[in-house]
Specification:
Elements lengths: L10 H16 L2 E7 L3 E3 L5 E4 L14 E2 L2 E2 L2 E4 L1 H10 L4 H9 L4 H13 L8 E7 L11 E9 L7 H14 L4 E7 L4 E6 L7 E5 L2 E11 L7 E9 L4 E4 L7 E3 L9 E2 L13 H15 L2 H13 L20 H10 L3 H14 L4 H14 L3 H15 L3 H9 L7
Helix pairs in contact: 5-6, 8-9, 8-12, 9-10, 10-11
Length: 409
Amino acid sequence: MYQGNTSGYSTEEKLDNLKLQVNRIASRKIDIVQEVGKVQVEDNGKIIRVKESGLKDYDDPSDFALHGKPMTIGKISPTALKNIGNWCHLSPYYSEYIKDQHAEELFAKNFNYWFQHKQLEKLQNRRMFRFLAPPSYSGTAGEIGTLRSMHSDLFRRMDNEVLLKALDPLMEEYPDLEVASANVNEDYFNLKLLFPEGEGMEGEIKPGDQVRGGFRLRNSEVGLSYLLIDFLVLRLICKNGMVGYEYEHGVKRRHGGKRLPIGVQPQFGQDDEAWDWVEDFNDDVATMIEECSNKENFRLHLGKMRDATGGKHVRFLNRISEENPVIPSVDLLGKQFGLSSSDKKNISSNFISARDYSKWGFVNAITEAANDSTNYESATNLEELGGRVLSFPEYRWLPFVEAEYKEAA
C-alpha cells in the first residue's frame, strides 16, 4: 500500500492534495450527448469531432464550451477507443492489431461507417461523449482535448468531486481517520482510510502479526469500475493492504441512471436535478462507514483471517522451471485471474520466502506483491484478489492446495 499520488504527511494534507487533483480534472470536463450521425472520426483515425449543429440550446459554436470557451474535437483515449470499438462490434483483438500495424485510418473507416449506418431506434442513436480539455486550455476554437470515453445516454455520472463532497461530513465525524493510500488520475479514483489506533479496530492474527481495519472508496468516471465502498485491512508487519471481497458488507453502485437530453451536460453544482442520486449516495456512505466501524463486524473478519492460518496448506512448492520460476498453485491463480508473469513470480517468491504455506500465507503473498507494483491500479487489483482468495470456501481453496505441475508425456 505504498502507492499513491497524494503528498504530505497528515491526513488533512493528503485529502487537500487529493481534492486539488480531483478539482483540476473536474474543471476540464465537457460531457456531451449527441446523435451518432453527427459524430465524425478524422481520416487519421486519431481525432474525433462531435458536431455542434443540432445540439439543443447550443446552436452557436461559441456556446459549445468549457466555461464559455469553445472546444469541439479530441484525441481518442484507449478507453474511448475500446468503447467505440465495442459499440461497432469490432473485436478487441482486431482493434489491437490495427494499432500494432499503425493502420489507424481503418478506425476512421469502420467508425464513421457505423456512426452513419448502424440501424437503431432513434433514442438508441444517442451517445454521451466525455471530453477532457487540455490542462492549459487557452480557449482557441478547435483546440484538441481528449475523448475520455463514450457511453449510453443512460450513463450516470458518479464523479469524483461528488465522492469527496460526501466525505466532508464523514471527516468531521471521524477526524482521526488516517489516509493509508490515495490516488487519482483521469480513469480511476482510489482512497483508502484506516480507523484510528485504540478504537477497537485492531487485532492479532497470530503472534506478532497485527492488522488494522478501515475502508476504501474506488470509482471510475469513465466506467472502468463500479463505484465501490468496502472493507479494508492493513497488515501492519509489512504494510500489505487487503480489500474485503464480500459485497454484502459494501456499497456497489452501477453507472446507470435517467436518460440525458441532447446537449452539453451540466457539471456538479450547476444543476441539482442532474445529480438527484447524491442524497441517497450520502446515506449509503454513512451506512457503509457504520458497518465498517462496527467492532463486532471487525471481529468476524478477524475470525476469518485467523481461520485461514490453519486448514490445509499448499502441498507442492517446487518451481515449474528455471525459465518459469512459478509454483503450481500461483500458476493456477494466474490462469484463473489473468495475472502477469511478473506478478506470478513475485507472489511465488513472497510465498516461499515467508515459509507460511497456509491460506493466510498465500493471501499475504498476493497482497505483498501489490507493494512491488509500480502501477496503482494493478496494486489495487492484487489487494482485491487477496480479499477474494481469503473468502474462498474449502472447495474453492482445495484446488490450490493440490495444484501440481505435470510435464507433458
